Amino acid sequence: MNEAAKGPGRPGRVKEITALTNPTIKAIRGLDRKRNREAENSFLAEGQKLVIDALDLGWTVKTLIYAKNARDHAGVADLAARVVARGGDVLEVSEKVLGAITRRDNPQMVVGVFAIKWVNPDKLPRDDDTVCVVLDRVRDPGNLGTIIRTADAAGAAGVILVGDCVDPFSIETVRATMGSLFAVPVARMSEEAFLSFRNDWPGKLIGTHLEGSVDYRTIGWAESEPLLLLMGNESQGLPDTLAKSCDILARIPQAGRADSLNLAVATGLMLFEARRHGLSIEDHP
Ligand code: SAM
């Protein structure tokens, strides 16, 4: 990168870039495609607080990008120094470049390029109070992001993506997680691998289905065993193969004309019921 400039008061390895044609900026803009994210093992997340929280949680910031006019904002220089100390790069860019990277008119002043991190499903906890969300072929980035955020808020131990799911590291999903992507372990596996994982799971697999025979409020949620909470695809619901593998098929009773609930809403209801005994307003004032 030949536009590198190191100014007074800035940590080392800060490069100033104003041109959209710069190869580094082009590569970062390319992270809007899943193929490029996978090839680079990288994804984007926006917002100064989010980047700080992610660093605190042990995520690797490969590149920190901030708008030139944010240079003197409280905390930006400290954050840049932290990133450099951990071996990352720092780019000081024009607002035009930042807007092009995030594809927004009013972009956040700080953006991070992070290393993608999938969790090995065998490393997920299996304690008596563990609840993990399992999503069958989730397709909508907003749904997935909202579910990861809700899983975080409900104290779920992780989210397992089964089959052909939307990418949790797309910018739309990352935005919808509101930072919870960094706090909730996310694993992925094929349906076949999940059926074998489910056989080794020490507790119950509770599926949700529009034809489920069990009212979700009547399940003995407080019984001590680790739970997998399985949710179906937005348009097709659960395939028979997965539905048959469940210990319980639960239904959320409905009134009115709607055929079903939105996937993220149904997941939220199930999760907060499953975690009811483990949550108290005293613990999270
Ligand atoms: N047309 C789909 C079907 O026939 O299953 C609707 C799927 S619904 C939008 C997406 C998922 O949310 C379902 O597979 C199920 O996991 C969950 N869900 C939505 N409403 C539900 C309800 N009332 N009871 C149980 N699960 C529900």
From TrEMBL:
Record's InterPro entries?
A: Alpha/beta_knot_MTases, MRM3-like_sub_bind, Ribosomal_eL30-like_sf, rRNA_Methyltransferase, SpoU_MeTrfase, SpoU_subst-bd, tRNA_m1G_MTases_N
Q: Which UniProt keywords apply?
A: Methyltransferase, Transferase
**Gene3D superfamilies per the record?**
3.30.1330.30, 3.40.1280.10
The highest taxon in the source lineage is Bacteria
Any one of the GO CC terms:
cytoplasm
Family per UniProt?
A: Belongs to the class IV-like SAM-binding methyltransferase superfamily. RNA methyltransferase TrmH family.
What PANTHER family does the entry give?
Answer: RRNA METHYLTRANSFERASE 3 (PTHR43191), RRNA METHYLTRANSFERASE 3, MITOCHONDRIAL (PTHR43191:SF2)
| The protein's name in its UniProt record | RNA methyltransferase
Organism placement in taxonomy:
Bacteria, Pseudomonadati, Pseudomonadota, Alphaproteobacteria, Hyphomicrobiales
